[in-house]
Amino acid sequence: MTFIIASELRKTYTPRGADPVHALDGLNLEVPQGTIKALLGPNGAGKTTTVKVLTTLTKPDSGRATIGGVDVLASPERIRPIIGVSGQYAAVDENLTGFENLDMVGRLYHLGSRASRARATELIELFDLTEAQNRPVKGFSGGMRRRIDLAGALVSRPQVLFLDEPTTGLDPRSRLGMWDIIQALVGEGTTVLLTTQYLEEADQLSDSISVIDDGKVIAEGTSDELKASIGGQRVEISLVNAGDSAVAQEVLARVGSAAPTVSDDGRELTVNAAAAPAALREVLGEFERLGIPLYDAGMRRPTLDDVFLTLTGHMATDDEEVAA
Ligand SMILES: Nc1ncnc2c1ncn2[C@@H]1O[C@H](COP(=O)(O)OP(=O)(O)O)[C@@H](O)[C@H]1O
Ligand SMILES: [Mg+2]
């Protein structure tokens, strides 16, 4: 069963004295029950705006959305009890302890003091926060903060969980821990909509991915489907000397089906080639003839990075230093 449906969502912001921004420009989404959908897109793509609309925090200018058959825009009061949200606008009280924060959320959901405290204890254990539970949140590390915030979203045992960039800014170990927790939740039947700028995260966690850019979905499918959709294999070389970059680009352009992509330092070059083994042989022969030393050379299947680059012309994590 499709649990979350968004159709043709539009939202335009018109900041004073600036051009209008089409944060959502006809966005469509469908998330089956008990699955995890990744909304993958760069900074400013419209991920947070989508989450805000679906969690009743923002009204779109037009479009429709339902969760479990309930109209999000017409009946927000029926949506709030069945959803949990954790994300960039984390709502923890800095001065309360980890335990107190969770207990407070329980009271807000009218759990009653005994049930609320029991749920807080359960979540503290689940999230491995036992040692930190009696310390104020203001002393928590980034990873602990994310965990307490996610725990807060789970107090009411929501059917649907919205996670807005749950691992942005976390160190690799905390990120893996967060992935485990998210996977366990989906295993228990929770439907999850997760936003991320990390291709690897979408690849690892999700049942399906919607790639979004400029407020709309530009591609959709499992990560394998997305990779297959751009086709071909990649021939990739790494130069010893950046000074050889221009010549190397010419060589790769001859065997590839499109212009090669080049790293900022000019030393890593990649090109899409239909017959990669033959292309690689030709490239190696050519470099040998020209006397250009190579650090590394090989062929590989496309990654989600290639998908993103092919679809949008830019990388997902190109940081344009947009103010958050
Ligand atoms: N309250 C707002 N006022 C003006 N512009 C906004 C507001 N919220 C978001 N935007 C703009 O809408 C676009 C989409 O933002 P957002 O949904 O936050 O993207 P993402 O979460 O993918 O980074 C961006 O260009 C952003 O600057
Ligand atoms: Mg965002």
Automatic annotation (TrEMBL):
Name any one GO molecular function. Answer: ATP hydrolysis activity
Superkingdom classification of source: Bacteria
Please report the record's description of how this protein sits within the membrane: Peripheral membrane protein
Tell me where in this chain the ABC transporter domain is found. 4-239
Query: What PROSITE patterns does the record point to?
Result: ABC_TRANSPORTER_1, ABC_TRANSPORTER_2
Q: Name one GO biological process term.
A: doxorubicin transport
Q: Which InterPro entries match?
A: AAA+_ATPase, ABC_transporter-like_ATP-bd, ABC_transporter-like_CS, ABC_transporter_ATP-binding, DrrA, P-loop_NTPase
**Which SMART domains does the UniProt entry name for this protein?**
AAA
Q: Where in the cell is it found?
A: Cell membrane
List the GO terms this entry assigns under cellular component, sorted alphabetically: plasma membrane
Entry keyword set? Antibiotic resistance, ATP-binding, Cell membrane, Membrane, Nucleotide-binding, Translocase, Transport
A Pfam family that this protein carries is ABC_tran
The record ties this protein, via NCBIfam families, to:
drrA
> Which protein family is it in?
Belongs to the ABC transporter superfamily. Drug exporter-1 (DrugE1) (TC 3.A.1.105) family.
Recorded protein name is: Daunorubicin/doxorubicin resistance ABC transporter ATP-binding protein DrrA
Organism per entry: Subtercola boreus
